[in-house]
Amino acid sequence: CPAAMLSLLSAHRGPAAVAMRTLCSHSAARQAEAIYWNDKHDSNESRFEKILIANRGEIACRVINSCKRLGIKSVAVHSEIDASSKFVQLADEAVCIGPAPTSKSYLNMEAILQAVKQTGAQAVHPGYGFLSENTVFAKRLEDLDVVFLGPNSKAIRAMGDKIESKRIANKAKVNCIPGFDGEVKDADEAVKIANDIGYPVMIKASAGGGGKGMRIAWNDKQAREGYRLSQEEAKSSFGDDRMLIEKFIDKPRHIEVQVLCDRHGNALYLNERECSIQRRNQKVIEEAPSVYIDPDTRKAMGAQATALAKAVGYDSAGTVEFLVDSKKNFYFLEMNTRLQVEHPITECITGVDIVHQMIRVGKGHPLLLTQKDIGVKGWAVECRVYAEDPYKAFGLPSIGRLTTYSEPTALENVRCDSGIQEGSEISIYYDPMICKLVTYGKDRQSALNTMVNALDNYVIRGVTHNIPLLRDIVTENRFVSGDITTNYLPEVYPDGFRGKQFSDRDRLNIAAVSAVVFAKNDLRNKTYLKKDRSNIVAGEAKKSFDWDIVASLDGKDLLCRVSYKEGGFTVAFEGSETLQIKDNFSLSDKVIPAVINGESVCMQMMARSFDERVTLQYLGTKCTTIVRTARAYDLSKFMPVRSDKDTSTTIKAPMPGLVKSVGVTVGQTVAEGQEICVLEAMKMQNSLSCAIAGKVKAVHFKAGETVNEEDVIVELEPLA
């Protein structure tokens, strides 16, 4: 991958490195031209000479790559902890703006403005997050005669105010969620308002939260009863019984429209993106276009999105977000006045370099694209690969160093937008995103098939990641059929994600490959100096070998005979099938392209331990198999079994993070389920409660201190 090679070479100096960087730059440019086949511009138009990127990670890399393609010098600003990051290496210049905490670095407006002055940057691209929607920052840049590569501050301010944005949307005749924002006096008025809005409606407490004081009503009877129950619940929970009513969106989908506007009154839409797969209101998987939206609905949504943009005087790339119900009625949610995280999938199906167009517009050039130029070519899917544990609330952050890292960019129609490389550190200070993995195909199924292959070949070691969840979703029946809503995850995984549920065939495949790994290791142990000296019989070297093996996984013991002849292995399971496995991988391979009975099966070698445990990743999920000879298995029955440790008396950190507060002291009596402390990790706050009633024995951390995963924060003593 030329772009990846370029990032590795960027830190090196000397004629050879310069020549190689030039070669890789040209190759990367050719790749970009193939991707951005519809990126209309005048090659002779004026350009910025230098752009500063006020962001970090993958989005900084993304903007820098467009700058390189256009021959524009780039400046990276970075925190102390990011000094050796990929985006810093890619940039032409880099300026340190402070310590790791965002408040002292990427939100440190004064330091960034000083970097702008110091480097002579003519424009600043804010990426997303941090200062990307900060009107004060945009105005300060304007005062310095530096271009803010985003919309004007008036548009940012208008769309950032929820009340004002709804007022502007209504005036622009954009569909908004019908509702009554005033206080509902009694049950009779609740019924009247519900009929005016149209059922179903959501009756909810003005001061509500956590799902309390909230009811859905589908008719007059439910409206009366729901009003009474919600009001009583609100009064007891919040001490405030004021009630609101708004339209309930049945089976909601989160669908957004990408808009692109200039300073000459032109506005167009680049189709929609389906963003309904979410956890904790954060997107996990996106795709473009949406399987749910037909051409007429797309046109109507696009027309309203551009009407809103024009009404507010918008002049950059932005995203108008909608909720879409089960009857394809769509309602305005908000407008994101910045480059969206998931913009690559729009680029894939339209051929437009959105970052380039933002730069052109910032320079004052009109859009050369028209709405007729924007079609839908193929299908694109994006999976957000995070350093998260998907088995904990669909993803609690993980930190650590990427000891081994290999993106699946060798596969066709795969795009990886990442800001890390092998050796990079995932810290507690920033978002845990590893990569935006994008796949493209002529249709949705082609894109999904490529995504499955890409996830299977994506090698990440050193941190826990969410590939098991992503891999399971993109092959799950409801998702594949397109039957999704914003409630998809809790509906499909009501008890949380538990990993791939392996079939008997899956277990045989895992056991067979694990047994072959055992056999290959045994063969290697008997060979040295490229000669086999342990299997000499009557002066002739043996050409075949056999092992009687027991493979134990998922509580089942599978007895098999493994036989080797040059070119492959035969694994015969007692009372079951016989599998032929091609000898086409080595024990050092991270990805195992296994061929089982002529069928390709992709696995990853995660670990091999001294106690005969083989851990493979198969269908996205890790599985550990204990592989022993039949003799070792018989003897293992005499080994004592280790009992599980009682952890109910300890409150452990489920992830690395910062202790925000500790609500108990030594000697205090606590009730079962009582909140003990609050832990913050990567912009998320998590309340930790106790599993039993007891007395606080010890408090090991206080507010402001950092903890690692599994650190004991508080110890309890059970009540007598």
TrEMBL record:
Domain of life of the organism encoding this protein: Eukaryota
Pfam families: Biotin_carb_C, Biotin_carb_N, Biotin_lipoyl, CPSase_L_D2, PCC_BT
Keywords: ATP-binding, Biotin, Ligase, Lipid metabolism, Mitochondrion, Nucleotide-binding, Transit peptide
Annotated ranges, domain Biotin carboxylation: 47-494
Cofactor(s), names only, from the UniProt record: biotin
Sequence intervals crossing the membrane: none
SUPFAM superfamilies associated with the record: Glutathione synthetase ATP-binding domain-like, PreATP-grasp domain, Rudiment single hybrid motif, Single hybrid motif
Ranges where the ATP-grasp domain occurs: 166-363
One GO CC term on file: mitochondrial matrix
Alphabetized Gene3D superfamilies for the sequence: 2.40.50.100, 3.30.700.30, 3.40.50.20, ATP-grasp fold, A domain, ATP-grasp fold, B domain
Catalysed transformations (reactions): butanoyl-CoA + hydrogencarbonate + ATP = (2S)-ethylmalonyl-CoA + ADP + phosphate + H(+)
Major localisation: mitochondrion
One GO biological process term: lipid metabolic process
UniProt domain Lipoyl-binding: residue ranges: 641-717
SMART domains found in the cross-reference section: Biotin_carb_C
Location of the protein in the cell: Mitochondrion matrix
GO molecular function: ATP binding; metal ion binding; propionyl-CoA carboxylase activity
Protein name: Propionyl-CoA carboxylase alpha chain, mitochondrial
Species annotation: Macrostomum lignano
